[in-house]
Amino acid sequence: MLKLIFATKNNGKVVEVSSLLKDSGIQIVSLLGLGNGLNIVESGLTFEENAKIKAEAVYGAFRVPVIADDSGLSVDQLDGKPGVYSARYAGDYATDQDNNRKLLFELSGMPEPHKARFICSAVYYDGKNFIGTRGEVNGRIIKHARGSNGFGYDPLFMPDGYDVTSAELSMEEKNKISHRAIAFRQLGNLIIKSSEKI
Question: For the CA atoms of 179, 162, 148, 187, what is the dihedral angle to 10 degrees?
C-alpha cells in the first residue's frame, strides 16, 4: 500500500478521493489528521499553479510524497469566474452558502442556460518530480439549490445529460463523471506506474 498525504483540509474532498483511490493501492492521509497549523497561500493564477503550490508546501513540511488539487467552477457568462477564487468567491471566510448566493446574484438577469464547467487540476509531488492531470465536466447552473450529497457549488450544478444536480447524485454516481474523479483516476494510475518503475 502506497501512503500519501493529501494536501487538503476539506473533508468532502478527502471522502471523495479516498473512495476514488481505494482500489488503486493508494492510501491517503489528509492534513486534517496531521494536526498541523500549515497555512498555504494559493497565489497561483491557474488551478495547476495552485495545486503545485499546495503540494510543494506540504512536501516541505513533512518530506512525504503528496497529492494535491485545485478545482473550481468556471461560468461562461461570468468570463470564467469564480475560477481559482471558487472557494473564496464571497470572501476569505465565505461558506458554501455565501458563495452560492453570490453566484446566483451575479447571474440574475442573465439569460438561461448558464453554461458552466467544473475543472480539477490534480498533481503528485515526490520532492523532485510532478505528475499532473486535469478533469472537466460540463453543465449548467440552476436557479435554486437542490440536493445534499455534495459540497461547494454542487447543489447548483446540473451536469450535461442529467436532470439532477451534482449534490443529488450518489457518491458512486458522482465518482463516475465528476471533474475530480476524472483527474484523480488518471493521477492514481500514473502514480502506480511511476512507483513500479522505481
Answer: -20
Write out the DSSP string of 105-157. Answer: HHHTTSPSPEEEEEEEEEEEE-SS-EEEEEEEEEEEE-SS---SS--TTGGGE
CA distance 189 to 182: 11
Residues labelled catalytic: 70
At 18, list the grid cell.
Answer: 479516498
pLDDT in tens, the chain (198 residues): 788 999 988 887 888 888 888 878 888 888 877 766 677 778 889 999 999 999 999 999 999 999 999 999 999 999 999 999 999 999 988 999 999 999 999 999 899 999 999 999 999 999 999 999 999 999 999 999 999 988 899 999 999 999 999 999 998 898 889 999 999 999 999 998 887 665
Domains with residue ranges and CATH for the chain: 2-197 (3.90.950.10)
Q: Are 178 and 134 in contact (CB under 8 A)?
A: no
For residues 32 and 50, what is the distance between their CA atoms, to the nearest angstrom? 19
Total-model pTM: 0.89
Place of cell 512525504: 64
